[in-house]
Design brief:
This protein has 366 residues and is mainly α. The protein has a domain of 130 residues. It is 64% helix and 4% strand. It has 18 helices and 5 strands. The strands form 2 sheets. Strands 1-2-4 form a 3-stranded parallel beta sheet. The longest helix is centred in the middle third of the chain and has 22 residues.
């Protein structure tokens, strides 16, 4: 059979596209068929990169890897093949690195060579989901195509991507439930994000948000941002306990208050605001927040929501308010509903002044 795929015609270009799709399909039967066709018809240059990626990605599948490598040996000039072999060893290490390092490596490859390595890098990305930052940065393919490769089960992770502006195209994934934008510096959030009505969770670990970006996110996703501020406050409060620093408590209360502004029905937020103000010896502000917490915990109990849990925390709030009778009453109820709260109460900061109390000891006795 002639090496007809090496001829540049409209028909062969269509066949090359089909063969490339087969290599990208991640279906072993398709890959085997594609390499079998190329064995007789030739492997044109636009498929060299994809074949190289197959060699790397299927190194544990000897039959597939060898078939792909044999095609490279038969069709690729020696000087290119030598460099390809170097890439195989380098990529084994680099694909496990963070996105910024992968991007640098991909840029090095494309800058060193005067022939197209796009199919190699794209095939690696499609299979490993690593290197998306490089494709977004250089806009080599439509942004939605890149995001579609990353989107799975209503989840999208751009963790570590070097983006200052979130792509408008994210909003086209209207069923998106989880978005990870950790380790970024975000200055702009598109108005189109208002369409993400199913979004329930955004991860921001070590992400810097400008005031404008924060305001947009608060406007579009008040509940998500409220919990984000609450968790941030808890982290700061934890540092305050470890370092006994009032500065940390001051920062914590600011984050707790931001959270309660966005989720005013969140009892735990008001509870912590009150606890911080009690620490600051600002009793009036503390009592106001704590009474708000009691009201919200009570409403949950009346609505039959996690009765033991909410009764326990209601007891904790009364303990902070130094209302001993009420604190011990609800603690007893919580422990009767769930024995684990006996140990929890012994360790709980809100009950630290009650640990020598005879009735407290009786209630929490195992």
């Amino acid at each position: 059979m002639s090496k007809y795929l090496l001829q540049d015609t409209e028909e062969t270009r269509e066949m090359v596209e089909q063969l490339n799709a087969m290599l990208l399909s991640q279906e072993e039967s398709n890959i085997k068929l594609a390499t079998q066709i190329m064995k007789g018809a030739g492997a044109p240059m636009p498929l060299w990169g994809a074949l190289l990626a197959i060699v790397l990605l299927y190194k544990r599948k000897k039959e597939i890897a060898e078939a792909a490598y044999n095609l490279l040996e038969e069709n690729v000039p020696e000087e290119y093949l030598s460099k390809y072999n170097q890439y195989i060893y380098s990529v084994n290490y680099i694909v496990n690195q963070e996105e910024s390092k992968i991007t640098t490596f991909f840029e090095t490859i494309t800058n060193e060579d005067n022939y197209d390595m796009y199919s190699f890098l794209w095939t690696l990305f499609v299979y490993t989901k690593k290197g998306g930052n490089y494709f977004l940065k250089h806009k080599l393919v439509p942004i939605k195509t890149i995001l579609s490769e990353l989107y799975e089960n209503q989840r999208l992770s751009l963790e570590g991507y070097q983006l200052e502006q979130l792509p408008e195209e994210i909003a086209e994934f209207t069923q998106l439930y989880y978005l990870n934008i950790s380790h970024m510096q975000i200055s702009h959030v598109p108005d189109s994000f208002q369409k993400l009505t199913q979004l329930q969770d955004i991860q921001f670990t070590n992400t810097t948000l400008t005031a404008e970006a924060s305001q947009k996110l608060e406007q579009f996703f008040p509940t998500i941002m409220g919990y984000y501020y609450y968790n941030k406050a808890c982290d700061v409060k934890s540092k305050a306990k470890q370092k006994a620093g009032s500065t940390f408590y001051m920062e914590a209360v600011q984050w707790f208050e931001k959270g309660t502004m966005l989720i005013p029905e969140y009892a735990e937020g008001w509870h912590n605001v009150g606890a911080c103000y009690i620490f600051f010896k600002t009793p009036e502000k503390g009592k106001k927040a704590l009474h708000q917490a009691i009201e919200l915990y009570t409403k949950r109990i009346e609505d039959n929501q996690e009765i033991a849990y909410n009764t326990y925390w209601k007891a904790c709030v009364y303990a902070l308010l130094k209302e001993e009778e009420q604190a011990l009453k609800y603690l007893k109820q919580a422990c009767q509903l769930n024995q684990s709260y006996k140990q929890a109460a012994q360790e709980e900061e809100d009950f630290k002044e009650y640990r020598k109390n005879k009735q407290f000891k009786e209630i929490t006795k195992k």
